[in-house]
Structure formats: C-alpha cells, structure tokens
Amino acid sequence: GTLADVNAPTRATAILIDSSDAPAGALDACLDAIGRRTENPLVYADVGTEAVDAGRGDSASFDLACTIDMAGASTRGERLQRLYEAARRDGAHHVVVLDAGILPVRKGWLEALVSQVEAGAGLAACVRSTVVCLCVRVADVEGAGMRFDGSPEKSPMSQFVDRAAELGVPMEYLPRSNGNELTDFSGAVYGDIVYVPGTDSWISDDAMDPAGGERRSTPFKLRRDHQDEFVEWIRGVKAEGRVFYVLGMHRSGTSSLTSCLEQCGLFLGHATRVPLPDQPRGNFERRDANTINNAILAASGGDWRQPPTTIEVSAEHRAAIAELVEGLQADAPAGLKDPRTLLTIDAWLEATARPGLVGTYRHPEAVAKSLWDRNRIPAGEAYALWNHYNSSLVELHQRLGFPLIEFDLSDRESYGRRVAALALELGLAPRLSAIIGLLEQPNRARMIPADEPVPPVCQSTYDYLRKHRFERREDVGSLAEALLAWEQAHATTDGPASSRTFGVRMWNLGRHLPRPLRLFLWRGWRKLATVTHKP
Q1: Which phi-psi region, left, alpha or beta, contains residue 310 (left: φ > 0; alpha: ψ -120 to 50)?
Q2: What whole-number distance in Å separates Cα of residue 299 and Cα of residue 313?
Q3: Sign of CA dihedral 150, 154, 156, 161
Q4: N or C: which terminus of the chain carries fewer CB neighbours within 10 A?
Q5: What is the arrangement of strands in the sheet containing 243-247, beginning at the earlier edge strand?
Q6: How does pLDDT run across 208-233, given as a tens digit for each residue?
C-alpha cells in the first residue's frame, strides 16, 4: 500500500520514501517533518496494507490515501521503482527520494534540492555510508533508462547513483553542515536541507535491541519528542553568524569561561594560549583586540587601571574593530574575550551584525587578592576598580539583558554544569566532559564563599549581579536536560580541544602580510572552504 495525497497529482515534485526496512516510528517522524515543512507535499510512501488500514502517518495530516499494486515487488528496489512509476504517471517533473527517518530541517527544503538540479546538476545526493537522499529530473531518469530495482545486495539509491556516475550524469553532493553535535550522537545535517540519523541512533523503543539499551534509543526519542527544537539545535540556528563577547572585570573568570565555551564550539581564532605566570593555560585573549582596546582607552585619557569617564572612538579604531569582527564572523559562532572590552563595548557592538553577550563576575574580595598578587594593587583601589567595571556590566545588563555567570570554582563540577547549560542557552553544544576536563587542570584562582562580607562600595553592585546570575534550569523532559544527560552518560575522556588549530596557524602567518594581500588570501581561503567536496 502507499500513502499519498491525491488532491494534487499535477504538482511538479514528488517525494518518494523508501520505508521498506524502516524501524517502528521512523516513517511517522519523516512524514510529520515533511507535512510541517512542505507546502502541499505530494508523497509516495510504502507503508504496507496493514499500516494503511491502521491510519499510520496521521501525524503528518495526510488525510487521503490511495493504493498501488505491490504484487510481485519483493525487494526494496522493486517497491521503490513502483513508487517512482506512480509519481511519473501522475505527472511529476522531479522526484526526491528519502530513506524513512530522514528529516527535512526547514521550510523551503524541497525547493532547495530542486534548484540544485535545475542549476546544472543532474542529480543532488546526500551520502553517508550509503545514499539516503537524492533529487533527480524525471526526464533524465527516463532518457538514461535508469531504474531503482537493481541488485538486492545494495541499497536502491546507492545503485541509482552508481549508475548515474557510469552514464556521466553530473552530480552535486550535499555537504555536511552541522552547527552542533555531541559525543557519539550519530547523525548529521546535509546542505542545511535534511537531517540524517546514524544507523546506530534511530532505534525506537519497540524496535530496539535490548542489548543496545537506552544509549541507542535516546537520539530517536529526542527527534520524536522535540523535533523542531532538536533540528534547530543541531543546525546551529540560534548561534549562526553570532560573535559572543565575554565581558567581566579583570581576574573575574573571563579566561575560564571563554576556554570552556571554546570546548562547546565557540571559535576564538588566534587567542593567546601561551602559559602565563598567573594563567598556566594562557588568557585566551587576542593581541589585536588588546591593542585596539588599549589605544581607545589611551586616546580617551586612561587605561585599564584608570578607566576614562568617557570613551572616544576614532574612525581608525572603528576600522580596526570592523576588520577584526569581519574575520570572526567568517568563522561564527565566534567569541572575543578582553576585560577592557567591557569599557569599549559599544564600538564593538556597532561593528557586529549578530552580537551576543555573556557576563561573568567574582566576589570582590577574591578579585582584590588576585590583583594584589599580580599587580600589587592596594585593596581600596581594587574595590573601586571592581565596582567601576561591574557597574558598567550592570548598566549593560539592564539595557540589553544577557546571562551572568558567577565565577566560583569551589565546586568545579557545579560550575561546569552551569557553563554547559549556558552553552545550550547560547545555541552551542553542552560538552560537559570537555568542560570538566578543562576545569580539572591546574588553576591558581582563590575562591571566597559568595556569602562572605562585601566591601560597602561594592555591595549594591554585587547584590544585583547575584540576583540576576544565570542558573541551570532543571526542566525534566526538556531537550536541554536530555542533551545534558546524554553528554554526561556517553562523553569520552578526551582532553580539551583548541578551536580549528590549522586555521589559527594560517591566520597567525597571514596577519603579518600587507592588508590588501591578507584580505585577498582570506577571501580565497573562505571560497575554497565552502566548495562542495565530493566523497
């Protein structure tokens, strides 16, 4: 039997679903995604006579069903060929073939596939271990005599693509385009068009091998129970194109927070990782950003230790900021950390198309002790400096609103969990194991309990920060909790990773070249990086 919408047989593109060997629930999820992300879809899906009688596929609101004679069609290829022939008879100009369980990820996905074919590719295909999605013109199929019912030893779509290659049909392969992923969480987004689950992670409860346990069924449950939210997260929609500024007073955990967010997918570029006397892992700051901020503060009559009352930003400074931000946006989601940025933030925000802010603060006594250890700054001056920076943070928070993290490593796992939850809030991956691994490395930060007395000059500012601090919300059954639980249960013990080290090395080499040559090479690199690579 075949489930199809028979109201519009003249629609140009037919969707064929190869569902012969699909696990329970996979076809329903696929139909549901198609029904909600496709305008008036024309779908042909082999669901079996018993499934049609049971109304399978109702979640996608396909109210009308027709049947196609499957007598004698015993293999996947033969059944898929019957679906194709039905679509051809109904007047389809293009056919899109999907494995059951494949999820379209956005509206306009069908048009995006067809446009690639119309742009010159005879066939657009999504490849993992086998072909699981393809789009082709019916005229090309008929003209070349290609069929889906080949050898049962290989998947019908893979054979179809092999035959197309033999005939010299030009093919466009959809590139992997994940915005996020988690340890052992199989699956990928291709071309920002479809999500393809891994063969080991789309098992539903009633089709699950008992030996696989919860590990194999959890990804399926996430797609079933939180489909839209899950698809947006794995695409990286929330963090797409964003540059996040990590803001905070000196010695207040900006380096720790930035390095943790790097583990969650935030690109830092050529940030400093050279060990420093007070920061064994480096401070994760960019020297070019330091130079710009120092120049702005100096031109305004101050420096980081004596903040100016007003900030003057010249055209030259704005141009330097724009150039730096342009490079970050090319690798977004990206991050920038320099405590001085808290004083110059308006100039950075003006240059950023999609800015994001994250604040961090620390008990003023702890900051004062750290400033004495590093700079021999007296306590009174340190308190005043703490209040100046954090009053700016409060004013900015009241104006724009953003997460504020309390820097407290007295319970490193608790801090790590908050940062992982924050990463999800920002649209990144909650790589809890990498965060905890990073926090377990040597750190000389002194911790002072949050309820310790606060100097009077800092009290009201500190009270505001604590009142508005970011806390992990434990919403049972939410996607966030499910992803955090998955990461905690299945994460590896691999050490922390630096962000895109090859690109960082190339940038470090290129930044010493003249600006026109540097921009020319950078644009060429970006163009090369976006070229579709054939498997």
Answers
A1: beta
A2: 8
A3: negative
A4: C
A5: 334-337, 243-247, 355-361, 404-406
A6: 344 444 445 566 677 777 888 888 99
